[in-house]
Amino acid sequence: MIGRLNHIAIAVPDLEAAAGRYRDLLGGHVGDVHILPEHGVRVVFVDTGNTKVELLQALDDSSPIAAFMARNPGGGMHHICFEVSNIAASMEQLLAGGARVLGDGPKIGAHGRPVVFLHPKDFDGTLIELEEVEPELTPA
Amino acid sequence: MIGRLNHIAIAVPDLEAAAGRYRDLLGGHVGDVHILPEHGVRVVFVDTGNTKVELLQALDDSSPIAAFMARNPGGGMHHICFEVSNIAASMEQLLAGGARVLGDGPKIGAHGRPVVFLHPKDFDGTLIELEEVEPELTPA
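Predict the joint structure of the above. Result:
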């Protein structure tokens, strides 16, 4: 079911400072700041060539990552995202196997694609996001 | 400086159970158990095609991840590892920029290559490993 690791998300208290460290100290390929009001976050992507690090900062106290930041004021690794080809089939298989999906099922995620989050207690304390990706165009 | 994300490491309380969930529930490409006594861990790699998830279990209470497990008995995301081409040059650049390297400098890591770990307080609560990789053979 799971395909590529799409990204690892790190929640940070100061997005510009974190992006500066990834650019200047680590020499990473750091993108621009994007504001995603419907997700309650500002994000910067660091492109590592094979995958991405997503730096996230809460927009305000109603952000989905606000509770995480209250527990981890200095920031921390927040979730990992795997690509799947069919999110409905993945959900069905996970629920049949006894895993818990957070919320009411797939929503449109930060990349405009359907996503679900799995309960971290079912996966060794790790919050896992599944994102449905467009089928790859296979060269003829 | 940083290149590909080599792996994300997740510390788990029960390696076989965690590997089983990645294989059976998530349908991942899960490898065999490797015991690394010199690193105090047993590991299983999940190959995602573009990178790897490294599941880690402490061998005993003297393991480098024992303190993490005491704080996070259910497990959790432990570190991320970026590839670099020259670890001595990377360390010099990081130290000059004010970042802290853990321990006395590069050691031979779990993959038989030189590694260093950076202080998580310098990178938003995220423990970062740098691993020196062999230079790629460029096709003529």
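The interface with chain B takes residues 1-5, 8, 10-13, 18, 21-22, 24-28, 48-51, 53, 55, 72, 74-77, 80, 82, 93-94, 97-99, 121-126, 128 of chain A (CB under 8 Å).
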